[in-house]
Amino acid sequence: MTQTRGTAVPAKDYADPSASVICNRVVSRVRPGNVMLMHDGTGANTDDALRCIIKELRAQGYGFGKL
To answer: Which residue of 6, 22, 57, 58 sits 20 to 30 Å from the alpha carbon of 47, by its own alpha carbon?
Structure first.
């Protein structure tokens, strides 16, 4: 999947996969300038996945900001 700057990386967390599936999906697809698309209140594993995503992406040198 080729992604350009500013492209959304869908976590598809609304489908309620495990936290590790969500984390791997996002971490494997994100590129500099992308935006993660996640849902609040719909996926039971979104909170745990977000912790994993932040940890993994910080280890790769990514930073986080507000939109």
So the answer is: 6
